[in-house]
Amino acid sequence: MLQRTSSVNRINIDTISFSSVFEIGDSCFIKGFSRAIANQREAEYFNAKEGNFSVYPVFRKPIPLIPIEEDISMQTAQLNPIIKVQNIDIIGVSASSVIHIGNSGDISMEARVKHIRQLYPKNNTSAIRP
Amino acid sequence: MNYQVYNRDLCIGSIRVLGVTSSSVLMVGDTQTIQLAAAFDTPPESLLVGPFVPLTPE
User: Which is one Pfam family of this protein (chain A) (predicted)?
Assistant: First the structure.
C-alpha cells in the first residue's frame, strides 16, 4: 500500500521531557508507557524517599483489550498522497508522549496516574502546621 | 466488513497545542493501528485531611 508523505513547513516545540519522543520520519512500532503518583499538598513538604507504585491497585490492574473478531477488508486510495501542514506550535510534551511526523505501523500507549491530595483540617490550620 | 477510504487533499494551516502528556500521541501521518489506554485514580480516600503523612516508602 502506497502511503502518504507528511510535509510540515515549520514546527516549534518549547519543552520535551520525561521520556517523550519527537520523531521525524517513519516508524514501524511504538510502545509508550508512563506511570505517575501526583501528590498535591497544601504546604511544601518534600520527602525524597517516599512513593511506591506497587501499593496502589491502579498500577497493577490489567487493562482489558477486547479482541477484534470482525473481518475487515480495508482499501485505501491515495488520491493526493501528501499531508501538508504549514505550522505546528507545541508548548510541552511530557510523560512518554510522542510527536510524530511521518507514518507508523502499530502504536500502543499506556498511562497510569494516581492522584492524591493532602490538606490540613478546616478551621484548625495553625495547630498542626509543622 | 468492507471499508473503503479515499484520501483526497489534506492541507492544514496551523496547529497550536498547549500540552501533549501522559502517553499521548500527536501525529502527522498515517498509521495502521493505534491502541491507547489510560488509568487515572483519584478516589475519595485519596483526599487526606489531617497532618501530613509521608506516602509508602520506595
Answer: GerPE
